[in-house]
Amino acid sequence: MQKVAIITDSSAYLPQEIIDELDIHVVPLMLHWDDQSFRDGVDIQAEAFYARLDKSATIPTTSQTTINTFDELFGKLLEEDYAICAILISSEISGTVHSAYKAQANFTGKPIEVIDSRLVSMALGFMVMAVARSAKAGANLAECKALAEEIHPKIGVYFTVDTLKYLNKGGRINTAKRVMGSALNIKPIMEIRDGKIELVESVRSRKKAVRRMLELVEQDLAGRSPVRISTFHAAAEKDNQALMAEAVKLFNPVETVTTFVSPVVGAHTGPGTLSIAYMLD
């Protein structure tokens, strides 16, 4: 049976040990900052990125993975006799999946599936991990695609930011919500819904935002298990550790993953971002 190679992009920011264990191929999105370009997770890593962002007078911009990057990787994997399943950041957030579709068209008739995950960060990461584990166990390309579609409703993610200025700068949230946040110094709680960043509600302190995110996850799970949990952050290590500790107490997850908000996502959310994602098995 033809083996399936799993591709994702750097917005998932999967820990390297998981990438290595599950043989996942990661294509970088791009950061552009002060006349320099960086491949996300290759030329710039999260810790260095947030240290620079905290002191920078400028905000970086981002761009999708290029068609050429997918062309080269697709060609290489096909030559090695792999089928290909590319599970990528939501098309509502990045044009990366459209680059992959265009590259796929250059390989007509070849075993390639490009999936718009409608997710980002570790919500995307959990989908990729599940499909990669299935592929490693012998699933074929059609089974990998079906699994990705099946588990999408079982995945959720919430996050809070210290300021809405980065989301507003990148056009990821509307001006009215930015003004409201600035005027009242409230902490927004957001989710990825239908592939887009949507405001769930706002609270008046970081502590309340963390507690509310846990309550929202608890509501979503509705007592169901087993569940996998990830917490991830942008230069908020202590808060991230505390969030994971509370999540473990509440949900008794079968797997936990801690990681960073990737630089290319953090360019739109800013330092201090704190996130929790879950996947029901």
Labels describing this entry:
281 residues; alpha/beta; Rossmann fold; Hypothetical Protein Tm841, Chain: A,domain 3; 2 domains; six-stranded mixed beta sheet; four-stranded parallel beta sheet; 13 strands; globular
- Mean pLDDT across the residues is 93
* Rg estimate, integer Å: 18 Å
CATH topology of the largest domain: Rossmann fold
Quickly count the helices. 11
What sequence of helices (H) and strands (E) makes up the elements? EHEEEHEHEHEHHEHHEEHEHEHE
Strand elements, count: 13
Quaternary organisation = single chain
Q: Bin the helical content.
A: 40-55%
Q: How are the strands of the largest sheet arranged? A: 10-9-8-13-11-12
Q: Could you say which overall geometry the principal axes of the C-alpha atoms support? A: globular
CATH-scheme architecture of the largest domain: 3-Layer(aba) Sandwich
The total tally of domains equals 2
Strand content: 25-35%
N-to-C CA distance:
26 Å
CATH class of the largest domain: Alpha Beta
Structural class: alpha/beta
Please outline the major beta sheet: 6 strands, mixed
Structure report:
The protein has helices at 16-22, 46-55, 67-79, 96-104, 121-136, 141-151, 165-169, 175-184, 206-221, 237-251, 263-269; strands spanning 4-9, 24-27, 30-33, 36-39, 61-63, 83-88, 112-116, 155-160, 187-193, 196-203, 227-233, 255-260, 274-280. It folds into 2 domains: 4-153, Rossmann fold (3-Layer(aba) Sandwich), CATH 3.40.50; 154-280, Hypothetical Protein Tm841, Chain: A,domain 3 (2-Layer Sandwich), CATH 3.30.1180.10. The protein has 281 residues and is an alpha/beta fold. The radius of gyration is 18 Å and the shape is globular. The strands form 3 sheets. It has a 6-stranded mixed β-sheet, with helices on both faces. Strands 2-1-6-7 form a 4-stranded parallel β-sheet, sandwiched between helices. A 3-stranded antiparallel β-sheet has the order 4-3-5, with helices on one face.
